[in-house]
Design goal:
- By secondary structure, the chain is an all-beta fold.
- 0% of the residues lie in helices and 50% in strands.
- Strands 2, 4, 5, 6, 9, 10 and 11 form a 7-stranded mixed beta sheet that branches.
- A hairpin with a 6-residue loop joins strand 4 (33-39) and strand 5 (46-51).
């Protein structure tokens, strides 16, 4: 089994920063495309950032581009999301996900709450 566990969420004022971490169990981490999703209350889940397996190619949703940075450390089986210039609109549960390609994400964490106050 592959398990993902997010950490680093919390309450922050607008304009502040947070760094989320996602630790993966198992030995397949380096073969996965990794992604961060978020879901705000009453809204659909959306992908906000992805990173490829070895070359580390990245994708960002327009809503976070220029403010968030996704990175990975395959030696530590960990993916990160650095969030800067946070806005109240960023308030959501943030999920880590992984899969064999960018079309399918088979493994999910339980989520971590990020709340940005105005």
């Amino acid at each position: 089994q592959v398990q993902l566990a997010e950490s680093g969420g919390g309450l922050v004022q607008a304009g502040g920063s947070l760094r989320l971490s996602c630790a993966a169990s198992g030995r397949a981490f380096s073969t996965f495309v990794m992604a961060w999703f978020r879901q705000a209350p009453g809204k659909e889940r959306e992908v906000i950032a992805t990173i490829s397996q070895v070359l580390g190619r990245t994708y960002y949703a327009d809503s976070v581009k220029g403010r968030f940075t996704i990175s990975r450390d395959n030696a530590k089986n960990t993916v990160y999301l650095q969030m800067n210039s946070l806005k109240p609109e960023d308030t959501a549960v943030y999920y880590c996900a992984g899969g064999p390609n960018s079309r399918v994400y088979d493994y999910w964490g339980q989520g971590t709450q990020v709340t940005v106050s105005s």
